[in-house]
Amino acid sequence: MNKLKNKLSFKLFYNDKFVMFFSILVAFISWIYVASTTQESTIFTVTDIPISLPELTNDLKYFSGADVKAEVKISGNALVVTNVTKDDIYITASDVSFINHPGEYTIDLVPKKSGIKTDYSFESSVSPSSVKVFVDRYEEGRVMQITDKITVNSVAPSRYVSQTVLSRQSVKISGAESIVNSIAEVDAEYTIDTTLSETTVVKAPLVFYDSAGKKISSKYINADITEVDATVQILYVQNVQIIPKIINIPELLELDSSVIQVEPSTIELAVPKDSNITAVSTSVIDFSKVTMQNNKFVVDLEISSACKNINSLEKATVTFDMSVMTEKNITLQQSNFVIENQGESQTAAVANKSLSVLVIGPSQKINLLTPVSVVARIDMSDKSTVTEGYVERPVKIEFKDPFTQCWAEGTYTVNVKLSPRNAAAQESSGS
């Protein structure tokens, strides 16, 4: 039996795989024995070690340098040093007491042991041996307005580049206090080189500048956004008519283009796509103020804020052709006055014996007009509680058919005598 076992054991050495495994095992055991018994020191390099910088005073913080990785050579027993990792060592500053205000500094680095593996020595200084750091106080959330600096190099014919609309009007900036406070302007910058014919949206990066116009690096600052959507509005250019807005036009008086002249008659506007804007109105013209001598009015143009006034026209001149008109003085008598809206306790009577009115209208009408076709209305609504005395009241001049194309020049008033209604009735019965 023993002979059989010895024979089988010896036979294993004719197996190539077994021989290879056995050789490796013997070599490993021999290396462990030699490494553990030899006094010769082995040098090993530990890499990718993070830097751990000490805290600073005066509320100062590191804004650069802390992200540097270092390496250091260690020496000792081979079994020990080859098992030391970057977690067993930390790199720190030899001294930071001299850092007491914001700025850039060079800090010398030293290695220190941090794990339970301590049976080794540092063979060399840290590589790198020093690191540059920038320190400052922390500024939290300074809000600044964003300036539109979108450039459009070319637009299609009959197109107009309107004001760019940014998706955000302001940005919140945090970081190194001195850098944040040096920012004088935040621009949304983008240049569009293609020819635009339609409204376009681009993403514009934010760029920071100091008061001298020098670009500021964002290395030591953080913004809550780094870009904005910029909508470049493209409007369509067209000529539209200027229409005068006129009130108090006499009934049946036709004011066509032969009577009214507008200068300029059109204006060039840039309007949104699919806009239904076909005309621009003027501010109100009160036709009752038109006379033979006062027939020209300079009025403002009412332009929608959605449009751009390409010609920069703000006013138009409206002229009424008075060559077919005539003016005439007529005298109204007591029979022409009509008093309306009297109070229940008052009696009103026009004190004026007559009223001279200057009337304007088409020549063929004015020549035939007599006081019989004129009504002078007096409204007592806001004086209905006054029961005694005299009040001055405005007069509204109206014209009966077929003279409704005429109008009175200027404004007129009359004096109205007021008396209590009962007293008036008694006076009437006594007489």
What does this protein look like?
- With 431 residues, the chain is mainly beta.
- It folds into five domains: 2-33; 42-136, RNA Polymerase Alpha Subunit, Chain A, domain 2 (Beta Complex); 139-232, RNA Polymerase Alpha Subunit, Chain A, domain 2; 236-320, RNA Polymerase Alpha Subunit, Chain A, domain 2 (Beta Complex), CATH 2.170.120; 325-430, RNA Polymerase Alpha Subunit, Chain A, domain 2, CATH 2.170.120.30.
- It is built from six helices and 31 strands.
- It has helices at residues 2-11, 16-37, 78-81, 177-182, 363-366, 421-430, and strands at residues 42-50, 61-64, 69-76, 89-93, 103-113, 121-122, 130-136, 138-155, 159-161, 165-166, 170-176, 185-196, 200-209, 215-216, 221-223, 227-232, 234-247, 260-263, 266-271, 279-286, 296-302, 308-309, 315-320, 325-333, 337-340, 346-350, 354-362, 374-379, 389-399, 407-408, 412-420.
- Strands 8, 10, 11, 12, 13, 14, 15 and 16 form an eight-stranded mixed β-sheet that branches. Strands 9, 17, 18, 19, 20, 21, 22 and 23 form an eight-stranded mixed β-sheet that branches. The chain has a five-stranded mixed β-sheet with strand order 25-28-29-31-26.
- Strand 13 (200-209) and strand 14 (215-216) form a beta hairpin.
- The longest helix is centred in the first third of the chain and has 22 residues, at 16-37.
- It is elongated.
- The termini are far apart.
- 19% of the residues are buried.
- Mean pLDDT is 88; it is low at 424-431.
Write down the domain tally. Answer: 5
By DSSP, the count of extended strands is: 31
What's the overall average pLDDT, rounded?
88
Taken as a percent bin, the fraction of beta residues is over 45%
- The separation of the N and C termini measures 171 Å
SS summary, helix count: 6
Q: Percent helix among the residues?
A: 10-25%
Rg, Cα atoms, Å: 50 Å
CATH topology of the largest domain: RNA Polymerase Alpha Subunit, Chain A, domain 2
Poorly predicted regions: 424-431
**Which second-level CATH architecture of the largest domain applies?**
Beta Complex
SSE-based structural type: mainly beta
Question: How would you describe the shape?
Answer: elongated
Largest β-sheet summary: 8 strands, mixed
CATH class annotation of the largest domain: Mainly Beta
